[in-house]
Amino acid sequence: MAVYKSKGIVLRSIRYGEADRILDLYTPDRGLVSCIAKGIRRTTSRFGARLEPLSCVEFVAYHGRTLDTITQAETLRSFHKIREDLARFEVAGNMVGSVRVLSGGDEADRRVFNLLYHGLDAIENRNSGFEAVQAAFGLKLSILAGYAPQLSTCAGCGADLGDTNRGLLYFSADLGGALCPECRTASGGTTFPLPPGTLVGLRNLIKIPLREATLEKRLRESTLRVVRSHIQAHAPGNLGVTRPVDRQPA
Length: 250
Ligand SMILES: [Zn+2]
Prior knowledge:
CATH superfamily of the largest domain: Recombination protein O, C-terminal domain
Distance between the termini: 32 Å
Number of strands: 8
Strand content: 15-25%
Radius of gyration: 20 Å
CATH architecture of the largest domain: Up-down Bundle
Helix content: 25-40%
CATH class of the largest domain: Mainly Alpha
Bound molecules: zinc ion
Number of helices: 7
């Protein structure tokens, strides 16, 4: 019975049987792991409220054939302020869903763990501008997953889209980047227009730390659309966004 100790962020918590929960955790050294926490829903559970969705915990578990079993957990950071606020919770749920679909299987990437931790930290600590964090998070995660969107040159012809105003530009999730008007006409796939300034805004979100992410109000919708469509187009299996907690009655 191989026992191990790790830390992880609880991505999802699903009720199981009478009193148990199945938890998906993202760990820096093991990637995504699925564990069962036995008896966690009893009032006398030794886990208490330590394994709530989004909380960052240090835990001890032993390997099982399909699921590992958690035997101990200590809270490192609860992120309770996110769970107590719907606007924050929705953005966090979106970030968690992106981690699930883009960081496939149990391949560990410490940078993904750190990005998620800093993303949750930014959401908990600011009072507005959650969309900016969500967009910046999605972009940075895409890059870590090897799917950097092409935002400086046209994904069709390679023309520099720099800071010059080349007229209306477009985004193609299929081609993974921005398109000049000529290539948009030739591409035939699904594209959508980008209001002026969107590309510069996107490049800026990639450059600056998550906690400093800002987004002009007029660019919010187009920016989030780019990030969402880009992640969806590159998600292995295209699983969509998963909620961090099940909502069905017990
Ligand atoms: Zn082009």
